[in-house]
Amino acid sequence: MKLWSKLLLSALLVCGSAHAEKPTEASLKELLIATNTQQMLVAVEGQMDGMMKNMMQRVTKDKPLNEQGQKALDKFREKVIAVRKQEMSWDKLEPIFIEIYSKSLTQEDVDGIVAFYKSPAGKSYVSKMPAMMQESMSSMQKLMAPMMDKMMQAGKELDEDLAKANKK
């Protein structure tokens, strides 16, 4: 009887842990709201637009553009931004987040995370996150500037090497 009791208890524990309750869509949406995910994505978009503009200026610094060229570059940037906004809209991203979170989190996880983000510490964290992200992006831009210069130099060297190879 002892062996049978132990086997039954073990089976119940395994079944219970293997069948953790999946979070509901409503609770996942509540999580996305509590974490201000949509607003953070909008803030990141603005920062990405700034980074793209800076990169384009770096790329063209050695090749100054005339007025027509600058208009063409601005038009291109606007098109890229419009495509990104359309293809990465909240209507398209929210279901993706819900699917990913649903696969990774249990209802218990979601309930705990939501409780944290509704707490004073969680609300403080969410309110400070945009400024922290902006500072992070700014720091990354500082790291990217020399990297872009090195990549552009490598591209020039490639052009030279290809030109030499084609002459042979």
Topology (elements, then pairings):
Blueprint: H1 2-18, H2 25-34, H3 37-60, H4 67-87, H5 90-104, H6 107-118, H7 120-167
Helix pairs in contact: 2-5, 2-6, 3-4, 3-7, 6-7
What global shape is seen? elongated
Number of strands: 0
Helix content, binned percent: over 70%
Spatial gap, N to C terminus: 87 Å
Q: What's this, in brief?
A:
The chain is mainly α. Helices cover 88% and strands 0% of the residues. Helix 2 crosses helix 5 and helix 2 (25-34) packs parallel to helix 6.
Structure write-up:
By secondary structure, the protein is mostly helical. The chain has one domain (20-140). It contains 7 helices and no strands. The chain has helices at residues 2-18, 25-34, 37-60, 67-87, 90-104, 107-118, 120-167. Helix 3 (37-60) runs parallel beside helix 7 (120-167).
Name the features.
168 residues, mainly alpha, 88% helix, elongated
